[in-house]
UniProtKB/TrEMBL annotation:
Signal peptide feature range: none
Lineage of the organism: Bacteria, Bacillati, Actinomycetota, Actinomycetes, Pseudonocardiales
SUPFAM superfamilies: Homeodomain-like, Ribonuclease H-like
Protein name, per record: IS630 family transposase
Matches recorded under InterPro entries: Homeodomain-like_sf (IPR009057), RNaseH-like_sf (IPR012337), RNaseH_sf (IPR036397), Tc1-like_DDE_dom (IPR038717), Transpos_IS630-like (IPR047655)
Lineage top rank: taxon: Bacteria
Pfam families: DDE_3, HTH_32
Tc1-like transposase DDE domain: residues covered: 172-295
Transmembrane segments: none
Length: 346
């Protein structure tokens, strides 16, 4: 009876089809079913049924587990596989193939056969060799290196502000977000299959644009912002004055890029007179500005999939999202801790 109950549990819970089929065969035999009846119901041969029953009688429940063999041995050795992976990571031009600029599986296979790297190989085998090594077909991306002669010094100064916030002041990252124009914006939403949400395809540019000037306080993780028609040094200086009024007794360390309004003489003079340090990023290094990563969320959640018809409506959506975000904000710590920039010295 105990074996019968255990076989019932196996027949209900087994995920391996072989183990499930063998358990059902033994269970039906234990219930008095004839071999011919079992074969007709399970669609197996009589020899299979007898072999399963005999093995269960000899070895018990261990006979239910499949004994997988290793399969056919590999015809392509590891050294050849590694060479295939190396060739796949090169460009066709490296092999004087100027008719195309990138490999497809078919073109790579033909190249391997023409060079004699392998005698025979299918596209599916080639795909598996590359997949097992973590080599996949990816889109090309760009990277613009900084030409700033003081790149290392500036980067280390910014990282030091991130890692060791000053006790007598605040580190704040500033940047502009926009332009905020009025147009239908693609987004994502949960919808019934094959029934996407529709937005109008045509629109008029009659309302000009607006810009968000934002500041990320690393101590609290909150964003302080202004939405203005222009982003000249006048508007930027108004934001700095608001930050100064918010923390009148602390020295402010402002991390920002090299946008011309940030470097305006009036801004520099005001900073000197009001105990504010302007920390400029190296050229072409906006990724060092922590606030850059914070702009993705309002772009996705406040503007994605929308069709605002007025700036007041769009500004209200952005304001609502930032209020909700600030209510859940936490101090910003651990900037790019695993990034190679932490070990750059030249």
């Amino acid at each position: 009876m105990e074996e019968g109950r255990k076989l019932q549990r196996v027949s209900r819970t087994a995920k391996d089809p072989v183990r499930l089929r063998r358990a059902i065969v033994v269970l039906m035999s234990g219930q008095g079913q004839a071999v011919r009846d079992i074969t007709s119901l399970m669609r197996v041969s009589e020899d299979y049924v007898r072999d399963v029953i005999r093995a269960f009688n000899e070895r018990g429940f261990a006979a239910l587990d499949p004994k997988w063999s290793g399969g056919r041995s590999r015809t392509i050795g590891e050294a050849i596989r590694e060479r295939i992976r190396l060739i796949a990571r090169t460009a066709p031009a490296d092999w004087d193939l100027t008719a195309f600029s990138t490999w497809s599986l078919a073109k790579l296979r033909d190249h391997l056969l023409d060079r004699g790297t392998v005698a025979v190989i299918s596209r599916e085998t080639l795909r598996r060799i590359l997949r097992d090594a973590g080599v996949s077909r990816q889109a090309t991306t760009t990277w613009k290196a900084s030409t700033d002669p003081d790149f290392i010094a500036k980067m280390q100064r910014i990282l030091d502000l991130y890692d060791h916030p000053p006790d007598d002041g605040r580190a704040i990252c500033l940047d502009e977000f926009g332009p905020l124009n009025l147009m239908p914006r693609k987004g994502k939403a949960w919808r019934p299959a094959t029934s996407p949400r529709r937005l109008r395809a045509t629109y008029n540019r009659r309302h000009r644009v607006m810009h968000t000037l934002a500041a990320l306080d690393l101590t609290t993780g909150k964003i302080h912002y202004r939405i203005r028609r222009r982003k000249r040094h006048h508007e930027f200086l108004d934001l700095l004055k608001a930050l100064r009024a918010r923390w009148p007794d602390q020295r402010l360390h402002l991390v920002m890029d090299n946008f011309s309004p940030h470097r305006h003489p009036d801004v520099r003079e005001w900073a000197v007179d009001h105990d504010v340090e302007l920390v400029f990023l190296p050229t072409c290094s906006s990724w060092l500005n922590w606030i850059e990563s914070e702009f993705a969320a309002p772009r996705y959640f406040a503007r994605g999939g929308t069709d605002h018809r007025s700036h007041a409506e769009q500004n209200a959506a952005i304001a609502s999202f930032i209020r909700r975000r600030n209510a859940r904000a936490t101090p910003k710590t651990g900037f790019a801790t695993d990034s190679p920039i932490r070990t750059w010295t030249h």
